[in-house]
Amino acid sequence: MPLARAVTHTLVGLEPRRVEVEAHLQDQVPAFTIVGLVDRACQEAKERVRSGIASAELEWPGRRIIVNLAPAALRKEGSAFDLPIALAILAASRQIPADALACHAMTGELALDGRLRPVGGVLAVAEGARQAGLARLLCPPESCAEAALAGVEPLPIRHLAEAVAYLRGERDPPPYVPGNGHLPAPPVPDLADVRGQERARRALELAAAGGHNLLLAGPPGTGKTMLARRLPGILPTLSDSEAMEVTRIHSVAGLLHPGRPLITVPPFRAPHHSASMPAIVGGGPGPRPGEATLAHRGVLLLDELPEFPRPALEALRQPLEDGLVSIARVSGQAIFPARFQLIGTMNLCGCGGRGDPAAACSCSPQRLASFRDKLSKALLDRFDLVVTVPRPRANELAAGASEASGPVAERVQAARQRLAGDPPRRKETASELLDRAVERLPLSGRGRARVARVSRTIAALAGSDEVLPEHVAEALAYRSPRELSVT
Ligand SMILES: Nc1ncnc2c1ncn2[C@@H]1O[C@H](COP(=O)(O)OP(=O)(O)OP(=O)(O)O)[C@@H](O)[C@H]1O
Ligand SMILES: [Mg+2]
C-alpha cells in the first residue's frame, strides 16, 4: 500500500509530544492535502515540500497525496514538519525505503531549493526522540550541537538530497564533531567602571548572593542602568540541571546561538518598556514563553519601570511569588517556569528632578501622584531591596577604578555556598528587632519574610553562622527609603 510514516515531535509549552506524519497516495486526480489541526506555516509546507522535492531532482508523485499529522487533536505549528512531510511522501512513493524512515527522528524547515533551515525547539524534539527510543535525529547542521545535548546522535543534513542518499544507504552525512566551532561566552561589563555608589553596589552584591529583587531609584544619569547591567558579571554559573532547563527554554524560543549550544551562565533579559503583556509574561498562539520565562534562573531587568504598561507589571506578580507563569486557554493551561530575579530602575518623579539636591523637582502634586500610581504597592512590596542612587559627587567621578567584578563574584559564590549548606540562624535578639519593625514600619507578612531572607544573605556574606540584629537592621534599611515611601 502506498502509505508511509515518519516520526517527529512537536512542543506543547516546553514538553515534546510525538507526532506521526503519515503520507498516503491515492489513485485519483493529483492534489495535495495536509490535515491534522495544522496552522498556517504548517499548511504552507505544501509549497516548500513540492519545490524542495523538485530541487532535489526527485519525483513528485502525480497522484492525490494526503498527509496526516497525528494525533489529530494536537495543534501543530511552524515549519519543522517540512522534512518529515517530504520524507514521508518520498517513502510512500517508494523513492526511499520506509523501514529506514521508521527508525529515525527528523526535524527541519525546507528552503525552496531543498536546503534545510534551522528551527526552534530542537533540544526538546531531540529529548522526545530519545524517550521514544529513536537514537538518531536528522536535522540541519546548525542544530546538531543542541540535539547532541539530549543524548541522541545528530545527523547533519544540509539538503533534502543528502537525507535521501543517507536513507537509501548510499552516502552517510559528515559525522557531527562535538565542540567544533563553539564560541566563548561574550564579555559582560565590569563593576570597575562604576564610580562611587557604594550603597547601590552593596545592594547589588546582596541581590546576587541571595537572588533578591532589587529596585534602583534616583535622578537621571547616576548609574542605575549601568549598575543593573553589571549584575550578570557577579552571578555564579548555572548547575548542570539548571543549564539544561534554561537551554531548553531558549531553544524553544529559537534564541540559541549555534556556537554556544549549552547556556551555562544565568540569562539576562532586558525588554524595552514598549513590550506588551504577552511579550513579558508569555502568550500568543502556542502559547510562547515570554521574557519572564526567558529570564528563568537569571535576571529580568525592567529599565524605567514606571514606563512599562501597568497590566504587564501586574501580570509579573504571580511569577514573582510562585516562580511560574500559567496561561489559561480554552484548550487547556500552559505552565512555564519563571523563577527570575527582578531588577527595576526608575526616576523618583516624572521630571526626574526629585532626589537631586542640585535640581529642583518641577512636578505638580497631581503629576507626582500620577507618577506614583504607575506602580502598585503590591509590586513595590515584592522588591526585597530598594535603594536610592544619588548623583555621584565630582570627586567620586574623578576617582580611579572601583572594585572590579571578579572579587565581588567570589564573595557572592562563597555566600551562596553557605546559604545552600548550613544557612545562618536568626538570634533571639534579631527576631525581636524584626517583630518590632513589623509594627513600626509597618511591614506586610510578605515584607517580613523578605526582610528575614535578606538578613540571612547579609549574615552569609559576612561569613557569620548567626543572623545578628545588625544584619536585620541593614535589611530593614533597604525596605523604607523616604523618597519612595514603600513599606
Ligand atoms: N556612578 C557612575 N560612575 C561612572 N559613570 C557613570 C556613573 N553614573 C553615570 N555614569 C555615566 O553616565 C552614563 C549614564 O548612566 P546610566 O545610564 O546608568 O544612568 P541612569 O541612572 O540609568 O539614568 P536614567 O535615569 O536617565 O536612565 C553611563 O553610561 C556612564 O558613562
Ligand atoms: Mg537608565
Largest beta-sheet characterization:
5 strands, parallel
Largest sheet: spatial strand order: 11-14-17-10-18
Amino- and carboxy-terminal Cα gap:
73 Å
Q: Could you say which small molecules are bound to this protein?
A: adenosine-5'-triphosphate, magnesium ion
Structural descriptors:
487 residues; alpha/beta; Ribosomal Protein S5, domain 2; Rossmann fold; Helicase, Ruva Protein, domain 3; 3 domains; five-stranded parallel β-sheet; 21 helices; 18% strand; binds adenosine-5'-triphosphate; binds magnesium ion
Structure report:
The structure is a single chain. The protein is α/β, with parallel strands linked by helices and 487 residues long. The chain has 3 domains: 3-167, Ribosomal Protein S5, domain 2 (2-Layer Sandwich); 191-403, 3-Layer(aba) Sandwich (Rossmann fold), CATH 3.40.50; 422-487, Helicase, Ruva Protein, domain 3. 37% of the residues lie in helices and 18% in strands. It contains 21 helices and 20 strands. A 5-stranded parallel sheet has the order 11-14-17-10-18. It has a 4-stranded mixed sheet with strand order 1-2-4-3. Strands 5-8-9 form a 3-stranded parallel sheet. A hairpin with a 4-residue loop joins strand 12 (282-283) and strand 13. The longest helix has 17 residues, at 445-461. It is elongated. It starts with a strand and ends in a 10-residue tail after the last helix. The model has no long low-confidence stretch (mean pLDDT 91). The protein binds adenosine-5'-triphosphate (ATP) and magnesium ion. The site of magnesium ion has 4 residues, from helix 9.
